[in-house]
Amino acid sequence: MDEHILIKKWIELIPVIIENINNESGDSRQLILDGLDFIRFYADKFHHAKEEDILFEYTDKNSDIIKTILQDHESARSHVRATSEALKRGNRNLIAEHLNAYKELLKEHIKKEDEILYPWIDRDLSTTQVGELFAKFNEAEVKIDKETIEKCKSFIKELKQRIENLKIKKEEVK
Ligand SMILES: [Fe+2]
Ligand SMILES: [Fe+2]
């Protein structure tokens, strides 16, 4: 849930990022590229992998909720690929469409996990299993590249300011 907080800060700012996409500006392109790196590394390689490789091992993988959650992860990955493609082609509408779809998907996804999935898993875990989970999460956290995690955190910290700078530049062009 703590990791969701950082991911939510990013998705909350997607609408204003979309508003300020400017094909002529290298800065807006770089901001989206960095956002995609944040998703690939923090939301996917780190967070979703912890869920898929560790947490869901404690659940019934054939249950509808787990199937839905895994499907969401796949859809999120395909929106990231599509955004990246659209960015290469400089297609503003497609960038906006896929970033927006990603935002909507993840917003609902995090809500499902926080309100339904995690409490449901938590109820069925024994104290020993909770201990095991903590140990496995710690292990995953030790293995992951700390420098990139810090980069992801700074990306979120600086995001509002970077968007403000984009807005100022857009005004100057007008
Ligand atoms: Fe998830
Ligand atoms: Fe999650």
Which distinct ligands sit in these coordinates? fe (ii) ion
Q: H/E series, N to C?
A: HHHHHH
Unreliable stretches: none
Tally of DSSP helical segments:
6
Secondary-structure-derived class: mainly alpha
Radius of gyration: 18 Å
Largest sheet: none
Helix content: over 70%
Shape: elongated
Q: What does it look like?
A:
By secondary structure, the chain is mainly α. It is 86% helix and 0% strand. Helix 1 packs antiparallel against helix 2, helix 1 packs parallel to helix 6 and helix 2 runs antiparallel to helix 6. The longest helix is centred in the middle third of the chain and has 33 residues. Bound molecules: fe (ii) ion (2 copies). The site of one fe (ii) ion has 6 residues, from helix 2, helix 3 and helix 4.
Which helices and strands occur, and which strands form pairs?
Elements: H1 2-19, H2 26-53, H3 64-89, H4 92-124, H5 127-143, H6 146-173
The protein binds fe (ii) ion (2 copies).
